[in-house]
Predict the structure.
Amino acid sequence: MKNAVYYSKVSGGNEEKRVLALENLLGKARPFSAFKKEEFIPVKITIGDSDCVYNLSPSLVKTVIREIRVSGAKPFLFDTSVIYEGRRQNAVDHLTLVQHKGFELSKVGAPFIVADGVFGQDGKEIEIESRHIKKIKVPSFIGMVDNLVVLSHVTGHIVAGYAAAIKNVAMGMSCRQTKQVQHSSLKPRVIEDKCTACGCCVRICPAAAISFKGKKAFIDESLCLGCCECLCACKFNSIYINWQEDPRLFAKRMADTAAFILSQFKTKFFVNFALDITKECDCISTKDERIVAPDLGILASGDIASLEQATLDLLSESSDFFRKEAVARPMLDYYLKNNPGCAGYELIKV
């Protein structure tokens, strides 16, 4: 049986039209009707970094929260800390940015939580059955609640070429160490010019692999476990990450990470906002970022693979940028091969 993908077409930057399209879509799909009174409902979003202006708007997020609250449930927004420079490396700066961008409780109707703690390392480590990534570390609430809602802004991506729901789950719902491992199988190194010899990485390393050498931190790769606790501990961006990983291997790690995380929830609902589609993802895009596809609208489904298939199909029809993209399709094929059950999708226009 084909999975339903609901599609509300909307174009242009009129926020009222976007909100109305989302309301119509949720009214047709009725995804939150089974939520129970007083149960906690995590809602995954990404607010983008400080220079990004194309992230999901507070009014769209508020619309989803309002519909969840009709059931009497208790929704909360969440994200995790990032591994690159910016205002989302720690919970203090992240939550300050949340207020600045208008996602505070008083405006959207739900509190925002940085789910992996102050420095992005609070969580539980789990071994998963994957040839490409052996262990992942995720926020502790995963596995403790039944339902999940994922709101994703569709964009391009510096490595995968395409970013939406799978990337939002794989990267956005894992701790900083796991983000780094997905990006690179190589062990971290120290950028000496940035190292202040504060000693925080030395103290936190579980393998005693870091010491001082010439008044700078030094990582002994023969002892290093690759856990990247040092990455979380360093406040001066002096831990080097290799971003030049094989894109297809990166995509497989994301697919396996996302599949395991989603297996911990009984019911899921995913919404892709194919609006203001930029060349780079919200992590690094700015007001000058190039738009690479026309606005398509809002798509939603209870099945992440069906949703991503439908989104990519629509993008491929309307944009040369995504028609030529060579990583997202193999990633989706790999996801489907290892997570059977999706027999295609039925696009239901709202």
In short: Residues 3-183+244-349 form a domain with the Rossmann fold fold (CATH 3.40.50.11440).
